[in-house]
Amino acid sequence: NVATTTAANAATAAVPSPPAASPQQADGSPARVTELTLDVMWPEPEATRAALFAAMSARRKTWRAALIANVPQLQRLLNMLWTSCCQLVVQGLSGLVVRLCDVLLGQPAIEHVLRPLLELQRDLGRSCSNPAVEPPVPGEVKPTLARTTLILAAAAAHPASRAALLTVESQLLSDALLPPLRFAEWPPLGSAAVSLLRFLCEPSLSLAAPPTTQRQKSDTPQVEPSELPSFEVLSPAVRALVAAANNLTKITTATATAIATATATATATATA
Predict the structure, then answer these.
(1) How far apart are CA 207 and CA 257, in angstroms?
(2) What Cα–Cα distance (Å) separates residue 55 from each residue in 8, 17, 183?
(3) What's the pTM?
(4) DSSP string over 54-67
(5) Angstrom distance (rounded) from CA 220 to CA 209
(6) DSSP state of 33
(7) Alpha-carbon gap, residue 121 to 140, rounded angstroms
(8) Which residues pair with 30 in a beta bridge?
């Protein structure tokens, strides 16, 4: 869309540019860029940051309007790509989902991107559990379920799309999370399932978590229960994880800690 691209590019035209010469060390090699050197390169860093933020906000607003205006075409494209067996397509689609959620934000991201994917994941799980249930898409069910789980895990690893996932109703999120955990004996599916659960439970990915530069890395960020999966989601998920534990040999300490902490928080909230 030429008009959209032109408007988005125009939004960044007023951002000040750094001087052509970059800081150099005494031997002539490029110096490591720090906040101090940035202050030298841009004499008014606060004004520059404000201008950059305004330009990025304008660009985001332009692209959000363009995407919402073309939702039917967007959904047709996503429906064609969800079940692709090409690894490069799946990797690209994972990044696309993250960026779409980041631009659309909130309810549009849920309704136009995440909900269709979660419903597809739920229906694939039903076909796995009961062979008599016709799969929602052609092809082998378990490999397709592993690919959609990986896409959801990529979304859960990004703060904005993770926040959108956590606002989806608990029943749908649980229905999408449980199938890959119940069939975790197949390594690709088990690995994807654990990654999805771990990222949903990871407090450092919360939009409310303080930046890592402002706390010791060993500290656990204090996150509100609303920034974690609910008890209704975690309780059956953890039971399924425990049942599949014998087939999951690569659960790291960090993953186990994140899941245990989130489960304890959700349990305390549910019983309060």
Answers:
(1) 20
(2) 8, 13, 46
(3) 0.72
(4) HHHHHHHHHHHHHH
(5) 10
(6) P
(7) 13
(8) 24
Structure tokens at 102: 């980041």
Q: Which residue shows structure tokens 């990529």?
A: 154
Residues 6 or more apart whose CB falls under 8 angstroms from that of 85 comprise 139, 143, 144, 147
- Rg of the chain over all Cα atoms, to the nearest angstrom: 22
**Nearest residue to 192 via CA among 94, 51, 110, 96:** 94
User: What CA–CA distance (Å, rounded) separates 214 from 22?
Assistant: 29
**Selection from 104, 107, 116 nearest residue 152 by Cα:** 116
Nearest C-alpha neighbor of 184 from the set 124, 252, 244, 121: 244
Contact 199, 162 (CB under 8 A): yes
Tokens of 180: 């890959």
What is the residue-level pLDDT of the chain in tens, covering all 272 positions? 545 555 545 544 544 444 444 445 445 544 444 444 445 555 567 777 788 878 888 888 888 888 888 888 888 888 888 878 788 888 899 999 999 988 888 888 899 999 999 999 999 999 988 888 888 888 888 889 999 999 999 999 999 899 999 999 999 999 999 998 888 777 788 888 888 998 998 877 776 554 444 444 445 555 666 788 888 998 888 888 887 776 655 566 666 777 777 777 777 766 65
User: 76 near 82, Cβ under 8 Å?
Assistant: no
Q: How far apart, in whole angstroms, are the C-alpha atoms of residue 174 and residue 23?
A: 52
* Residues sharing a CB contact under 8 Å with residue 109, sequence separation 6 or more, in sequence order: 100, 101, 160, 161, 164
